[in-house]
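FORM 7B: Structural annotation worksheet

SECTION A. Query
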Amino acid sequence: MHGSLVTGDVPGWPAPSPETAIYLHEKGVKTLGIDAPSIGSAHDGVPVHQEG
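SECTION B. Predicted structure
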């Protein structure tokens, strides 16, 4: 966990990809519940927010 949060070089938790966000939107999903600090990954969290 230290490497992912401090250096951002590996995922810190499972996270949906931007493609997943697009797919769910196209299927009419309006709300997504997660059990993580962010819907984006620790190492590259911005793209899924931009698509979602």
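SECTION C. Observations
Helices lie at 2-7, 18-26, 46-51. The chain has one domain: 2-51.

SECTION D. Sign-off
Analyst initials: ____
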